Amino acid sequence: MFTKNRGYAILRQKDLIEGIWMETYTNNNKKPEITVIIPSYNVEEYIGECLESLKKQTFTDFEVLCVDDGSDDGTVDIIKEYAVSDPRFQYVGMDHCGKAGLMRNEGIKRAKGEYLLFLDSDDFFEPELMEHSLNKIKEDQADVCMYDARLYFGDTGKYRKSNVMQKKEYLPQTMPVEGKSFPYVFNIGTGCPWTSLFKKSLINENKLEFMALSRSNDIYFVNMALVLAKRITMLQEVLVNYRQRSTSLQANNTKTPWDWYEALKAIRDKLKELDLYDAVETSYKNLAFGVSIYNMCSLKAGEAFCQIYERLNNEIFAEFDLGTFTEEECYSYNAAKYQIYMQMKECSAVEYLFRQAQEMKEWQSRAKKAEKELKKLKSSTTLKAGKALLYIPKKLKHMNGKK
User: Fold this and answer.
1) What sections of the sequence does the record tag as coiled-coil (predicted)?
2) Which CA distances in Å does 9 have to 21, 31, 339?
3) Tell me: the pLDDT tens digits for 232-289?
């Protein structure tokens, strides 16, 4: 049905897929250069800052598809406010499924742009994100343009540089590079979709989709897009501010502890199906190795940790050709994880946790001892005498300055 609101035509349309609604506040048939796809769910605290940072982009020929997963807070109202005031923003509503991958896939189906950005609703972006990444991808006639991101801590308002969003030591000497020929194709970044601009034809021609997982839905999509890309280019520029919050899916990974495993299996199987596995074997091994140990170590529940630890040791390392993974094969960014891997081969999960507890206890003991020594030093006669001696030249300098 059509209604009128603030001078814009509103089309509210029930899709062929049950539970999908779309509202657009203009009859906009023009094809923009970039489609931005944003999944959202109960992010009323952050979505305004996210959309405002897109509104302030130095590049203007884009559309934003906000695919909402049945939010029951004020998220939808905020999205609709932007859609009413700016026809580039659109609201797409879904029945709640809890799977960002399905929301992103819905966005891909509806996207009109030649290029796709997959951004998150709780992050915000530098004004040059679209302009600089689009210029670079066109300049190098590439299928993918990768760029850097930094961490943002909302409770303090502080930013922190990240060494994993774009691993500088793996940057190619010349660009662009072919995905399957690049030795670090799976290792240059984190596998997050929001650190790359993708050419839509690459996605359509290879029928790429995000996996229907609660977590790790993007690992398959991003890595398969990279290995299938004929030309990848990169910007050493921070264009995304990645918000850190305790209620994120990553922070609550105990609820779905095996999603990463399903994603890694899907990549391996597809590589073998396309006869690409041998070309990228070392890169894939390092991806599987890093993702496996990272997800195990990030768990907050002991029972889930032990389950993954034992299954990695007994099954999964061998399944991913990591049973005899050597230090020579291990890329530098996985060096710390390799030490964990070696310990895992020596002991059970309980023994490993006991060792970690002992090391923590020793560290705390050393920290307390150092704290006592510091207090003792601060109260010592020697320190007080030193301060007094320093005070004399300072005082003389001050008096001399007055003269």
Assistant:
1) 353-380
2) 16, 18, 61
3) 999 999 999 999 976 554 445 677 889 999 999 999 999 999 999 999 999 999 999 9
240 phi and psi angles, rounded to 5 deg: -125, 140
DSSP annotation of 177 reads B
For residue 51, give Cα distances in angstroms to 38, 65, 83, 116, 138.
Answer: 10, 11, 10, 16, 25
Q: Which residue has the tokens 């997800």?
A: 295
Whether the Cβ atoms of residue 309 and residue 344 lie closer than 8 Å to each other: yes
Distance of alpha carbon 114 from alpha carbon 77, whole angstroms: 29
Residue type, 15: D
Nearest one of 225, 194, 301, 309 to 256, comparing CA atoms: 301
pLDDT of residue 371: 76
Q: What single letter denotes the amino acid at residue 35? A: T
Residues contacting residue 392 through CB under 8 Å, at least 6 positions apart: none
Q: Residue 387 — φ and ψ, nearest 5°?
A: -65, -40
Cα separation, 245 vs 260, whole angstroms: 20
Which residue in this structure is represented by tokens 């150092």?
370
